[in-house]
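Re: the 328-residue chain
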Amino acid sequence: MFKDITVIISASRRTDIPAFYSDWFFKRMKQGFLYVRNPMNRKQVSKIILNREVIDCIVFWTKNCEPMVAKLKNISAYTYYFQFTVNPYGNKIEKNVPTLKRSLHSFKTLSDLIGPDRVIWRYDPIFFPQGFTFSDHLHFFRKTAKSLSKHTRKCMISFLDVYKKCKKNMKPIMYRNLKETEIYEIGERFALIAQDYNIRMETCAEKADLSKFGLSKGKCIDDRLISKISHKNIKAKKDKAQRDACRCVASIDIGAYNSCMHHCLYCYANYNFATVIKNFRRHDPESPLLYGNLTGDEKITERKQKYSAVYQSIQNRPYCILRPNIFQ
């Protein structure tokens, strides 16, 4: 007997795979595996099996799904959903993110294709750049909620946490975090707007309790949603690798830091833009790694995933009856 482990792929908190690495992703799905370097030790590499007998769900994180949409039919046998960020800040802060008009169009196109339950609107992080007011947030949130009201069921919000490693990138803009009273006022006003457009609201990794306004503490990697859209009883433990306030269940992230070309100034995952460009140039769609290739001095360890032993034994046979991927 093999232990039944819930396996969720996060694609990815560290970078925007749909926007910049979709060809690589689908090639890896066809090959049935990929490699992920340990961010703290490049010589430690994990082998991740990509197979519908193994994977319970794929969670995509994006600000631009356009490069991926046409190929989603290739993973129709998998359970997946999108966390899709639409923010009000413009290209002075989110430098390479598409325009609002284009973002809303691609959001709606995606929702029409896979359904509103599977496209979650993210409005985060919330903060005040110079010249951006409380009223600006309310106006933009209402405008976007109205536009997306038939295309999503839920909005996730969070408030800016400025990590030490991204303070340097934030220096060119004058900004401030929200005061505690403003957090509660934003929560209350946003909840009323969302209610007008039948959108449920949850907070992401926030200590503040906004439940009295109807905002529960949410899970971006959500076993409840996965159970609903997969029609399976999914049970998973909290992800211990995330912050204490984060309620996400455990997942395997297949991205890499310093590889997202959106160049958002507040981003904790891509904090050196020169390194981002260097790594992006090293991207090889044929490589099992997101960027670069193996150099030969790595130790490769296969992640413990359910049925991995069964899968490996079948891989070694001259033909496969368990459908190791849906491309064959």
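Confidence is low (pLDDT under 50) at residues 307-328.
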